[in-house]
Amino acid sequence: MFSNLYRQCLVEKHFVYNLFPLCKWSQCFASSQPELATESTIQAFEEPEKRSIKLEQRFIYPEFLPDPKIEWRNSIRERLERQDMLKRRSQIEIPEFYVGTIMAVTSFTPHSTSKKNRFLGICIQRKGCGLRATFVLRNIIDNLGTEVAYHLYDPTIEKIEVIRLEKRLDDELFYLRDALPEYSTFPLDMEPVILPDNTPIPVNTTQVILKPRPWVGRWERTDFKGINREHMMTLISDKMKMQIAKHQKPWEKYDLMKQYRATIPEEEQKEIFAEVYSQLHQLELGKKKSKRIRTFVKPKKSA
Amino acid sequence: MKYIRNYRKSFQLVIFCRQASYSSVSVVRNQNEIFDNELARQTSDIGRIEKITVNVHEKIKNETFSMNKHLSTPFNVAQHISKWMVEKSALALVDNSKVWDMHKPLEDDCSLRFLSFTDEDPHHVNKAFWRTCSFVLGAVIQNAFNDSIKVLLHSFPSPQITSGSFVHDAMVSLDDWKPSSDELRCLSADMLKLSLKELPIERLTVKEQLAQEIFAENKFKLQQIPDISKNSGGKVTLYRVGSHIDISKGPMISNTSLIGRCSVTSVHSIETDNGKLYRFQGIALPKGLLLNHFAYKILEDRSTKLNTKDYGSTKKQAMV
Amino acid sequence: MNQADLSKLVSKLRINIRPRHYNLKNPKGPEGRLERLRIVVTGLIKHERIQLNYRVADEARGYAERLISEAIRYGDCHAPTMEIADYWLTEKQLIHKLFKVLVPRFHECNMSYTKLLRLSTDHELTRMQGVLELRGNPYPPLIKDLSRNRNLLHNVLLDAARKDYRHEQYLRIAQGMSSEGKKSNEETITGNIEDKDKNEKA
Amino acid sequence: MSFSNIFLRPFHTSKECYHIIKMSRLRVVDNSEIGRRAMAEGKPPKCIHVYNKKGVGTIGDKVLVAILGEKKKGILVGVKKHQPPRVPKFDTNNIVLIDDTGTPLGNRIHVPIPVMLRTILKEKTFAKGVDYTKILAIASRFV
């Protein structure tokens, strides 16, 4: 698979070189700036209608965006990875999910006799990009907190089910480790909740109550909206309360370059999603079709 | 390949340190001796030194210098201003009309402007550059060949930049010589070495008789000298780079260091009134002007075509 | 392994971004660093061309570019942008200049909004200096544009080469047309070609 | 560098806190008499040796523990430290007490244990040596 993709890239490159003699006169006079050229190519495929759709996709498929670290960028590698990701997505259905969604993952394991392992839990983190994208599920089983991390594009994963599709107030929920157990306890045989089509993703606004210290993190210094702050303040000492102000970084809000280095510019995002748009769209259509069949069968049974 | 002197060790040989046959060395030494003596004589003839006022017009400010009549050159004036001015200026414009060599002594009170390759309209400088390149190519040809091969420089036509190549005609005692790409590369390397040596290009006006004395060994030049002196009142202008001396009307740029990228691209054999000659062609760019390799390749390719400037009418060529 | 920050969309800057910021040491830490850069950005917006330490200039350049691109992107009715502008521009009349003068100036701009030039330094001991300027400033330009001047030697040569090339192309087209026509009317056209060739040589 | 700056160095200690090394407190998760009593009294066992070459224990490693004034051996069946993908990570460091022949002291484990423990313990078991696989028989749930 890899070699094929690589060849494809090379062919495209070759094509670019073939074009070169045609524009040789414009190249000779060294007056045009390279920025101009890239700008015009970006604007070429921009359509007002598609624009909003494409940019919303970044929340559904964040792993399609490359790592913002400049030293690690490599356009060919990123492109090959995107192709591989699409191929994997055509093999198994990777549903739309967010941090806070309750999911179940069935994966192949050589260790058990049934060769299959299913784990259900709440997604507490979504991290990484490209083929190395991971997510972490957490559940409390037999009163013991258990967390499992999965690669999203792991070939040993057989099925990813979304049990309850919802968002939380924060981007990562590691504070659930220090929250009361009822916030991360989910029965392993939970029934999937199917949302009607075209409904916005519900946001779960629960504010968790933390257990008394010790904690795994200094939650009082963070500004997670999902923690019940009033209750948390009763759990910490006066010294810790005094230190909160010392660790605030109010200037980071104005550090424009820090924000810029942590993200991918809009133009590049558009380029990326324009590249994968058609294939993703087809996959979504196929998903809808299979969903319709499933929803059609179920009422028959209950009736 | 076998004809070019420094093919085998092209990166070691310096063309002016060659161990040539006694006769050619003595000819060059003789020429230079005459040139030096004449230069010394003209300097001593000046006698009492008179002062002249030179107004230099530059964009930022105007300056006035007191210089020596018949002795100071625009080069000296530039030395008073800045090193940068010395390095970048190729020619001088005296009284807003006369194009002046950088090494030609000033003759009277005047206003002065320095010309460089990046001026708004560098027409004169470009022409002088092209002429200098032809002249330097002559120096390369003179020294590039093995001793067994006799080389007699003929002349070079007046510069025409749009023709795409600068030219030098010479007689080489070889039949049907077609240079290989390696031989051409050796010639280009020799030219580049000259530019790296940063040699000044000296100028001297001599009488017809003296010119004949200098070029006694060169039958072509002897033919050309009477015509030239007739047109310029019995005088002949000589230029010297390193130890190579040639006749030219001028003006030329001040130093070989101003030659940046250069390559000798082709040699054609041509039939003229004076028998069979070889026409050496090349292309060069001044040091400050950068061009990407692709565009430069186009210029190189174009310069390999036979330059038909003054082709066939060799008498005119003497009028350079 | 990082994931791109999704919460905020930013416009692409047309300058080279260093992978990491310069270590501009400041006793107040990162906050003091920003405060120092704030003075530079304010000065740049005010005077449009400033000369300063190269590293500080390079660092401040990114912030100035981002500030202008945010202003262009969201306009003056967007509260967060206004807050950022309020922080970066210490003189309040400059906020007005940013939205009313610079935004219209750079709205259609396809290049970077600022220019950074390195100055040559005479002494080894002096820190490297740079000139930071906004594009379209009223001062005379700092560097000559050599590519536009058609009289320069390389441009003269290239123009001549282009003329030559076109001439050859025309000749080839003319020959192609005549060879097609040959089949129908051989004698007359071959005569024409010969005439044409003669004309070209002349 | 002043003394106070040492405490501002940007290094993390939390990873090392999760390591199972000598003197780490562990949690007994089987229903052996001694284990239950130790946990109930609030005197959890202390690791006094890790039987591997790194000195840092992980899933399936044998440890020597001091529990209620006695020395007992135990198998780690779940750890707190960061794990590679698809390996479960737990909120506590769990052990199951065994005797020298590998027989567990209790007869029931009341927390989930990782599936890969099956393979790990089978690999560690040799004929005529210690048989660790008996632990698997008393496990109630695998994840």
TrEMBL record, chain A:
Instruction: Return the Gene3D superfamilies for the record.
Output: 2.30.30.790
GO molecular function terms attached to this record: structural constituent of ribosome
Q: InterPro entries under this entry?
A: Ribosomal_bL19 (IPR001857), Ribosomal_bL19_sf (IPR038657), Translation_prot_SH3-like_sf (IPR008991)
What keywords tag this UniProt record? Mitochondrion, Ribonucleoprotein, Ribosomal protein, Transit peptide
Q: What is its main location?
A: mitochondrion
Q: Where in the cell is it found?
A: Mitochondrion
UniProt GO cellular component terms: mitochondrial large ribosomal subunit
Task: Tell me the Gene Ontology biological-process terms attached to this UniProt entry.
Answer: translation
Name the protein family: Belongs to the bacterial ribosomal protein bL19 family.
Q: Which PANTHER family match?
A: LARGE RIBOSOMAL SUBUNIT PROTEIN BL19M, RIBOSOMAL PROTEIN L19
What is the protein name for this chain?
Large ribosomal subunit protein bL19m
Q: Which source organism does the UniProt entry give?
A: Nezara viridula
Automatic annotation (TrEMBL), chain B:
Task: Name the principal localization, coarsely classed.
Answer: mitochondrion
**What Pfam families does UniProt report for this protein, alphabetically?**
TGS
The cross-references to PROSITE patterns, in alphabetical order and at most eight, read: TGS
Q: Where in the cell is it found?
A: Mitochondrion
Keyword Secreted included in the entry's annotation: no
GO CC annotations, alphabetized: mitochondrion; ribonucleoprotein complex; ribosome
Annotated TGS domain residues: 47-116
CDD domains, per the entry = TGS_ThrRS
Key word Ribonucleoprotein present in the record? yes
InterPro entries, per the entry: Beta-grasp_dom_sf, Pro-tRNA_synthetase, TGS, Thr/Ala-tRNA-synth_IIc_edit
- Keywords on this record? Mitochondrion, Ribonucleoprotein, Ribosomal protein
A GO term for molecular function: RNA binding
Family listed = Belongs to the mitochondrion-specific ribosomal protein mL39 family.
Among PANTHER family, the record links this protein to: LARGE RIBOSOMAL SUBUNIT PROTEIN ML39, MITOCHONDRIAL RIBOSOME PROTEIN L39/PROLYL-TRNA LIGASE FAMILY MEMBER
Name of protein: Large ribosomal subunit protein mL39
From TrEMBL, chain C:
Record's compositionally biased regions (Basic and acidic residues):
193-202
| Gene Ontology MF term list | structural constituent of ribosome
Keywords for this protein = Ribonucleoprotein, Ribosomal protein
Which GO cellular component terms, listed alphabetically, does the Swiss-Prot or TrEMBL entry include? mitochondrial large ribosomal subunit
Which InterPro entries does this chain map to? Ribosomal_bL17, Ribosomal_bL17_sf
> From what superkingdom does this record's organism come?
Eukaryota
Entries under Pfam families matching the protein: Ribosomal_L17
Q: Which GO terms describe its biological process?
A: translation
Instruction: Locate the region Disordered.
Output: 176-202
| Stated family | Belongs to the bacterial ribosomal protein bL17 family.
Protein name from the UniProt record: Large ribosomal subunit protein bL17m
- Organism, scientific name: Nezara viridula (Southern green stink bug)
TrEMBL record, chain D:
Keyword set includes Mitochondrion: yes
Lineage, top-rank taxon, reads: Eukaryota
At the highest ranks, the source species' classification is: Eukaryota, Metazoa, Ecdysozoa, Arthropoda, Hexapoda
Alphabetized SMART domains for the sequence: Ribosomal_L14
Q: Which HAMAP family match?
A: Ribosomal_uL14
Per UniProt, the keywords (alphabetical) are: Mitochondrion, Ribonucleoprotein, Ribosomal protein, Transit peptide
Asked if the keyword Transferase belongs to this entry, the reply reads no
Q: What family is reported?
A: Belongs to the universal ribosomal protein uL14 family.
Tell me, which GO biological process terms does this entry list? translation
- What's the name of the protein? Large ribosomal subunit protein uL14m
| Entry-linked InterPro entries | Ribosomal_uL14 (IPR000218), Ribosomal_uL14_sf (IPR036853)
Q: Indicate where this protein resides in the cell.
A: Mitochondrion
Gene Ontology cellular component annotations, sorted alphabetically: mitochondrial inner membrane; ribonucleoprotein complex; ribosome
GO MF annotations for this entry?
Answer: structural constituent of ribosome
SUPFAM superfamilies found in the cross-reference section: Ribosomal protein L14
